[in-house]
Amino acid sequence: MAIVLLGINASPFVRKVRVVLAEKGIPHEREDVIPVNVSAEYRKISPLGKIPAMRDGDRALCDSSIICAYLERTHPEPALYPSDPYEYARALWFEEYGDSALVSVVGPKIFFKKFVAPRFFNQPMNEAEVQRSIDEELPPLFDYLESQLGDGPFLAGRTFSIGDIGIATEFVNLRHAGVGVDTRRWPKLARWVAGIHERPSFRKLIEEERAAFGLTA
Ligand SMILES: N[C@@H](CCC(=O)N[C@@H](CS)C(=O)NCC(=O)O)C(=O)O
To answer: Which pTM does this prediction carry?
Structure first.
């Protein structure tokens, strides 16, 4: 029976799982679930009412990190978790950094206020407030990532990993909201984001989302 991913595309956590599915070439279906007033049935799969959740036959799971870890075990190739213990731990750390520090600024303070609220809830944006988050809250997060990147194309070790996915998915939401990375201030980060977003897995999803949102430029 096919894997069914539950959630909506604009969520960085849903995208994280979609990138893993794409990188591993796992056939799947997707069902829209908007994480507001979710059904009692959905809560049985995702007790916190959050997206994503996943069904794999008669098995059900929730939480992007748990789903990605499961998919790594059911579909080991290509590996998205480094085999070296330290690189493995670093990959998990970057995934966590994306899922906690980055999302807490990118999600509610920038993507929601600048992109979702005006478009979908007809709420005017408080421009000064959003700009303050962009000018003051993002830079320390970007500084840290810049300091962690070496000369190679990946964040954790020598291969593309869940660490790259967990961080790069947040930059898709920033991109939708029209926020980029200043190449002079954060040259390594800007190069890394561009490289990861050019991978076929990310590129296809970004194009699909941009088309759905009517974003052209
Ligand atoms: N740790 C969770 C976080 C998921 C999450 O926060 N999803 C958001 C959408 S981007 C959500 O469902 N929010 C609704 C809520 O918090 O009730 C994961 O990795 O899946």
So the answer is: 0.97
